[in-house]
Design goal:
Blueprint (H helix, E strand, L loop, with lengths): L2 H29 L4 H24 L7 H17 L7 H14 L3 H16 L3 H26 L2 H18 L19 H5 L2 H15 L2 H13 L4 H26 L4 H21 L3 H9 L1 H18 L6 H31 L2 H10 L13
Helix pairs in contact: 1-5, 1-6, 1-7, 1-10, 2-4, 2-15, 3-4, 3-5, 3-7, 5-15, 6-7, 6-11, 9-14, 9-15, 10-15, 11-13, 11-14, 12-13, 12-14, 12-16
Membrane topology: Multi-pass membrane protein
Subcellular location: Cell inner membrane
InterPro entries: HcaT-like, MFS_assoc_dom, MFS_trans_sf
Length: about 375
């Protein structure tokens, strides 16, 4: 199967699962009787264990040829791990399963991104266009689950995740042509610590952590906050879907309108978007404000992520792309979000929407930081 079609199907299946998990998992946990503080602790612990999973799994990938076999194994293990949530809802069991599932399943994100960036190098894959298939699948899932929660209850969150994981496992075994391979003349893959010691990589990771980490309150508590404000599960699903529609439009416009821009200006735009979006969500739960804030997802997440892809594919040597992708996922998308999500969990009952103002403050320093090209 050609690289574009394979990656489009893979991103579609992965982000279908993510579209059921990310907006609604807190509602599933609430539905089995957990308090907001316990939910925040669990979500934070899950994000923290992603740090270990991303580093340990991605750190063992010795070259591009190993990306596909490891991805297939992770798909199978993810399906088996989520089956455990049907076995019981005791708090200790949920803690164990949260750690296991978050060690395995989220690592598929950096693996998929690593496959995509490798295809950018090998066949000049249009990353923005192929990635929008994942965004569209996210919309389908979040809309579908929102309707199911409204009419059938929160149990259908887990049912939808399981269906998506089964599809993901099947699709991952389709043949990929060309297979991921090292570039002719490419040096041996750099180690994680060696890569992290590069000042340019560390600066990139700090900027990405500020911007992506500031999404912690949104990922963990927007559904609970909006539900408390009187919105139904279906409306919450539509709001999340709207954000991803804006994301799709941005990904679709990437090659035509943004391809000439390097990482630096894109990060600045992402930072400005974060300040505006989190301020809006902190100030009001009026529907018009929420709609505007969700449209800004195209900036806060999408433009910031495109900036990261620019840095990975244009400003790093090929042998450093896989370890830097692992560090990006572990630190910016994992550990930073984990710490902030746990913090938001402890503050939510008292602060309510005020946690979004905290996220705006967290993103603020990114305005003055600029990524640098690799020095080593």
């Amino acid at each position: 199967m050609p690289a574009f079609a394979w990656m489009a199907l893979f991103f579609s299946a992965f982000y279908f699962v993510y579209g059921a998990y990310l907006p609604f998992w807190s509602l599933w946990l609430e539905g089995v009787g957990l308090s907001p503080q316990m939910i925040g602790t669990l979500l934070g612990a899950g994000m923290a264990i992603r740090f270990a999973g991303n580093l340990l799994v991605m750190g063992r990938v010795k070259g591009a040829a190993q990306l596909l076999p490891v991805t297939r194994l992770l798909c199978l293990l993810s399906l088996l791990a989520f089956l455990g949530f049907y076995a019981g809802h005791a708090p200790w069991w949920l803690v164990v399963l949260t750690l296991v599932t978050n060690f395995i399943y989220p690592t598929l994100m950096p693996m998929g991104e690593a496959l995509a960036t490798r295809m950018v190098i090998q066949v000049h894959l249009d990353y923005g266009k192929v990635r929008l298939f994942g965004s569209f699948a996210f919309i389908v899932a979040s809309t579908l689950v929102g309707l199911l929660v409204s009419h059938q209850g929160s149990d259908w969150i887990l049912h939808t995740i399981m269906a998506g994981l089964l599809l993901l496992m099947v699709l991952s075994w389709l043949p990929l042509h060309p297979a991921p391979s090292d570039v002719v003349g490419e040096k041996a893959r750099a180690g994680l610590w060696q890569t992290f010691r590069d000042p340019a990589v560390r600066r990139f990771l700090l900027i990405a952590a500020l911007l992506q980490g500031s999404h912690a309150a949104y990922y963990g508590f927007s559904a609970i906050h909006w539900k408390a404000a009187g919105y139904s599960g279906s409306t919450i699903g539509y709001l999340w879907a709207l954000g991803v529609v804006a994301e799709i439009c941005m990904f679709a416009a990437d090659r035509r309108y943004l391809s000439r821009l390097p990482a630096r200006p894109l990060f600045v735009v992402g930072a400005i978007g974060c300040l505006v979006r989190w301020s809006l969500l902190g100030a009001s739960t009026e529907l018009g404000v929420l709609i505007l804030a969700q449209l800004l997802h195209a900036v806060t997440f999408c433009v910031s992520h495109l900036a990261a892809v620019r840095f990975l594919t244009r400003e790093l040597a090929p042998e450093r792309q896989i370890p830097t992708q692992a560090l990006y996922s572990a630190l910016a998308l994992g550990m930073t979000v984990a710490v902030l999500m746990a913090l938001c969990g402890s503050l939510y009952e008292q602060w309510q929407g005020g946690i979004f103002w905290l996220m705006a403050l967290f993103a603020l320093p990114a305005l003055w930081l600029r990524p640098r090209r690799e020095l080593a």
